[in-house]
Amino acid sequence: MKNCNEIKSIMFSEQQIQERIEQMAKQIAVDYAGRRPLVIGVLKGAWIFVADLLRSLELPADVDFICASSYGGGTTTTGELTLLKDITMDCRRRDVLLVEDIIDSGITLSRLKDMMIERKAKSVNIVTLLSKPSRRKVDVDVKYVGFEIPDEFVVGYGMDYDERFRTLNYIGVLKEEVYK
Ligand code: 5GP
């Protein structure tokens, strides 16, 4: 989906996103040279990012998905993490890369990281396309960040508001009336 009249402003264009992903993929390929990471995408928001990142990544990698939610359909976190879908691959002794669309409070990623460490992953690093540092509630070490953004609710490129806008090619901010 390219056009949407419910978007107030475009934060990152398709081209800006792709250029940044290329840079991130290059850095990951250097850091993981000679290894075969297990990439775990956090559903649903990270599905497009995972697809683009892995196609840019000049490394063999396995891929799986996990679905965890700390949101109930609105725009604020509840702090409760619910595991809705687990990975099907064994992460023991694997170099795990947790791939997220956006880190807000940090609760989701810090819990998922702990979970993978408890399951005996060899290493666990976090990749996120977007980060809102001003919203952090827990300290979580994020190794790869695409863009740091202000405290605004964004949609598109996999990210939703009430399951809408995920298929926008860019990342944008919604008009206020959409929330009413
Ligand atoms: P955290 O656990 O870091 O608070 O929340 C991470 C999750 O919150 C993300 O995976 C995403 O689903 C959701 N989230 C946080 N901020 C935004 C935002 O600005 N837009 C959208 N669409 N989702 C967000």
SSE map:
Blueprint: E1 7-12, H1 14-31, E2 38-43, H2 47-56, E3 62-69, E4 82-85, E5 95-103, H3 107-118, E6 123-131, E7 144-148, E8 154-155, E9 171-174
Parallel strand pairs: 2-3, 2-5, 5-6, 6-7
Antiparallel strand pairs: 1-9, 3-4, 8-9
Helix pairs in contact: 1-2
Structure write-up:
The protein has 180 residues and is of the alpha/beta class. It contains 3 helices and 9 strands, in the order E-H-E-H-E-E-E-H-E-E-E-E. It has helices at residues 14-31, 47-56, 107-118, and strands at residues 7-12, 38-43, 62-69, 82-85, 95-103, 123-131, 144-148, 154-155, 171-174. The strands form 2 sheets. It has a 6-stranded mixed beta sheet with strand order 4-3-2-5-6-7, sandwiched between helices. Helix 1 crosses helix 2. The relative contact order is 0.21. The model has no long low-confidence stretch (mean pLDDT 92).
Q: What is the β-strand count?
A: 9
Shape: globular
Rg measurement, Å: 16 Å
Named once each, the bound ligands are:
guanosine-5'-monophosphate
Strand order across the biggest sheet? 4-3-2-5-6-7
What percentage of the residues does DSSP assign to strands (E)? 25-35%
What's the pLDDT, averaged over the residues?
Answer: 92
Order of helices and strands: EHEHEEEHEEEE
The main pleated sheet reads as:
6 strands, mixed
> How many helical stretches?
3
> Which spans of ≥5 residues are poorly predicted at pLDDT below 50?
none
Helix percent band:
10-25%
